[in-house]
Every structure is written in structure tokens, then in C-alpha cells.
Amino acid sequence: MAAVEQPAEPAGTWPARLHVVTGKGGTGKTSVAAALALGLAAGGRRTLLVEVEGRQGIAQLFGTDPLPYEERHLTDAPGGGEVRALAVDAEEALLEYLDMFYKLGAAGRALRKLGAIDFATTIAPGLRDVLLTGKVKEATTRTSGQRRTYDAVVLDAPPTGRIGRFLNVTAETARLAKVGPIKTQSEGVSALLRSPMTAVHVVTLLEEMPVQETVDAIAELTQLGFPVGRVIVNGARPPVPTGRQVTAAELKRGLAAAGLPTDGRTVAGLVAEARDQQVRRELEDSLRADLVELGLPLTELPLLPDGVDRAGLETLAGMLVRAD
């Protein structure tokens, strides 16, 4: 009998199968999640990029139609790989759950018309996140024959302010539910999220509020027992060696040599700008040091001057998978 082809292993520095990407709003976590999915798919692998917030951020990033509750081809990756995408909808996930465990089929779909699904997720708000994470777990552990369907699953997760509650709701549900499929599913999801198969990566900018939220989120995740992977600094500028400030006279001579205006207003404006930049860089260096003190792998992604287009995503993808 011919040997069953085994899936390529994830890149050595990204050994988990489920990569949860979070970060304060505005840090570019969706772009980082997409780049990571693209990078992990290189070399003939298949990854799944999942979103759960209903923002359709993945579709906007790739310029495609809104994603349905269906895994579909999103883009090819270098070396014959493939990235597929899925937007998890809580209502559709509940219908799937009811059909899977209670065989309701058409009766389950009829519940939507009666408003029972909204009612269920209203009286049990945590149920929504249980359904969302349950679908992610199913995709992560699914097999086709004797191999995993996906070599890696990348989840564009809720922001740092909600990530602890989002990931921990299954443990709370498993504790409250005494018996039945909900308890079993919740326990399974909770176990996966706390296992070496999962890594939670936190995206930040070198700005005070995102860095503070990163520190707080990592402390919360660690306390709850979730495996934290990397801190990813997005839009970073390389550190600049400190040195003396350029004087106004030096600036004036430089402007004159370049054939540019040397009036007092121009020189004073440039001096002020140079001073502001120096202060900004010193703050960034201080925040970078705070992140280093966390003792986690730190990856810095550059600010892309042309924005995050396909070429930019490939640049970020390459940097991520080559990270130390």
C-alpha cells in the first residue's frame, strides 16, 4: 500500500497549529494575521485564515467579495501553497451545532425565523463565543483521510481588551454545564486553546496605549493559562543611534549647499522637527525595552510606505516566517 502523504510541518519558529492573533484596535492585527497565514502556507502547505467579528476585514484586505460561512480559496502562496478563508457567523455556527448534535436539520433552520437563535445568544451571551471558538477548533483538528486538512489555522481574534474573556468562555461554560454536548464541546475547545497546539500572538505599535494593552493582555492570558507566542511590533522604524542634535547653523549650511531656502522660519521649523523626532525615537526605544522585558519572542515588522497591498503582505509574510 502506498504511504499516505503527510502534511508539511509548520515553520520551525511557528510550531503551533492554531495561531490566535490579537492586538489593540488600529495596530493592524488583521494585516498581520493575513501575512502570517500567507507565510505559513508557503512551500506547498495549506492554511485557513478565520475571522469572527463580522467586520469582513479579510475580504477588504484582499479586495474580494464578503466571505460567507464557508471555507473558500482566498489566495495562492509561494511554492504551491494555498490560503483559504472563513468568516464564522454565530447564527450559522449554532445551526450547524444543532444539526450535528441534535439532528434538527430543517427544524433547526426554522428556529431562525422564530428568533430563537437571537433569544439563545441573548440569554446566554457566552454561547456566541463558544460557537465561534468551537468552529475554529473543528477546523484546526479536522482530518482528511490520515492527514490534517490544514497545516495551520490563523485566527484574526477580538482585540486585546476582550481576548481573555473570548478565549476563556469555553472553560466557564464547561464549568457551568453539567452534562451533554455543550459541556463536551466546551471542554474540548478549552483543552485545545491551552495546549501546545495553540499560540496567542499579540500585535502592537510602539505607542504608549497599545504597549500598555499588550502588557496587560499578556498578563491576563498567562494567568488564564493560555500559551502566549510572540509579541509582534507592527509599523516599526529601526532604532536610530543617539547623538548630539544638529545645530541651526549646521542645518542652514546644509540647506544652502543643497540650494534650498535658508530663512529663519525654515531653519527653525526643521530644528523643531528634528527635536520632535528625537523625542519620539527615544520614547519608541523605551517602549521597545518594555516589550523586551516581557521575555517573549519579539518580531518587528516595518512601516510599509505604500500601505498593505499584496506585495506588502508578501514582504511581511516573509519576515514573519523567517523571524528568530
TrEMBL record:
Keywords on this record? ATP-binding, Nucleotide-binding
Range of residues in the leader sequence = none
Asked if the record carries the keyword Nucleotide-binding, the reply is: yes
Give the matching Pfam families.
ArsA_ATPase
Any GO molecular function: ATP hydrolysis activity
The protein's superkingdom reads Bacteria
Q: Know the name of this protein?
A: Arsenite efflux ATP-binding protein ArsA
What organism does the record attribute this protein to? Micromonospora auratinigra
